[in-house]
UniProtKB/TrEMBL annotation:
Annotated source species: Streptomyces sanglieri
Protein name (record): Phosphotransferase
Coiled-coil ranges per UniProt: none
SUPFAM superfamilies for this protein: Protein kinase-like (PK-like)
Gene3D superfamilies reported in the protein's UniProt record: 3.90.1200.10
Domain of life: Bacteria
Domain Aminoglycoside phosphotransferase: residue ranges: 15-170
Lineage: Bacteria, Bacillati, Actinomycetota, Actinomycetes, Kitasatosporales
Amino acid sequence: MAAGHPARRAAGGPLAVCKALRDQGCPCPSTELALQVGGGVVLVQELLPGTPLELLDHHGLDQALALNESQAGLLAGCADIPSMHLYLQDDGPGYCLHEPLRLHSPRSGALERRVRSVGAGHPPRLAGDDVVHQDFHHGNLLAVDGTVTGVIDWDGAGRGDRRFDLVTLRFGLHAQEQAPGVVRRLDDILDALPDDVLRPCWAHMSLRMTDWAIRHFAPGDVEHWLDLAERRL
């Protein structure tokens, strides 16, 4: 396969990330087969025990935070694994599109301008050698009787700053009611992050979720994500 083919990119990115995690004992599924099918990749992965968490309680948040800490520095010396692109000034590959925000409403257009402004003041890619899941929400945590047994959906994983995943987790908690105090705890953690970490990560997730809602969900859902985006942007 050519280096640009999806299966080769997966082997050099998400699959390599998962191997680094498993080598450290993290509950990440092994991949038994990666097969090129047309323009995409079909993966055959290990079936981990447990079912996705529907809600995140304080015990679940403790485990999520511990998992996030375990991702620190695991990709030091792995410069061949791509760092995560934030797409704050240009479009992502099918997500993080800017034009839908510009066209949808004055409010979403104003958000898009703030996202681009943040992008003008920060590097386009995340710095760091941590593992970044990129879609680290509670629905991707498997658990048995409240104990996390695995983390799934590593398709977008790459290198960067693990704290990006805490911002993703916060956006995931916005989708539905959570146990009392959980969101406040996570907000307090995010508020303590350096501005040059929190601001570009928040801008990325604001763009990602608002764009996706505009193109795939009802108008009320767009306002739901705008409400969250504007809290820190």
